[in-house]
Amino acid sequence: MARERILIVDDEEDILKLLEYNLSKEGYLVSRAVTGEEALVKAKTEQPDLVILDLMLPGIGGLDVYRALRANPATDKIPIVMLTAKGEETDIVTGLELGADDYITKPFSPKVLVARVRAVLRRNMTATTNETDKIEIHGITIDPGKHVVKVDNVPIDLTLTEFKILHFLARRPGWVFTRYQLVEASRGEDADVTDRSVDVHIASLRKKLGPAGKYVETVRGVGYRLAE
Questions:
Q1: Angle CA 106–11–46, to nearest 5
Q2: How far apart are CA 55 and CA 73, in angstroms?
Q3: What CATH class is the domain 5-125?
Q4: Chunked in runs of 10, what are the mean pLDDT values of the chain (228 residues)?
């Protein structure tokens, strides 16, 4: 059974009860906060393993709470899953560009939420992958040291930008990244990469990966991810 501590930040009692019941049933230790101010105090004193943060809070809003958590060295490494009632693309994109680990829109399935929480915690445990470590996933092998990519042990020829985008996605399988984040990840010799050109690079990357290209998934209105 899981024993990680999760801090739920939401001002709706029904949501708090629903989350607390389902997470506790899975073995997680749950604490709650109903305001942004309370969340900041509890996150610092309790050091939870993950925070579920509603964006629509009284007083300090969810995005400001997120920024404050990330700005504090005592809480900047805590994974954060954002919860939004509207499910608006702007909210989701803003959260992801700030660096949120995942997002969930209301209404939500408790089973799906628990699965997403479990996935974020699992990813966080393995997030220390060195940038030079070889990655193998879905039959794709990425060797950053040699700058080589193989699919089913067959080398494929990628541009520098395609390589950087694939490597960036593969280091965090399941994570959704916005076009802006992919631009930032691929900057360097290809300084002309823009958020508009990311789609073109993704399309070319999928084509070169062949059948494995299906694992580079589009999250409509948000960005891209490499399937877990």
A1: 105
A2: 22
A3: alpha beta
A4: 83 93 92 94 92 90 91 88 76 79 86 88 63 86 91 92 91 84 70 73 94 93 87
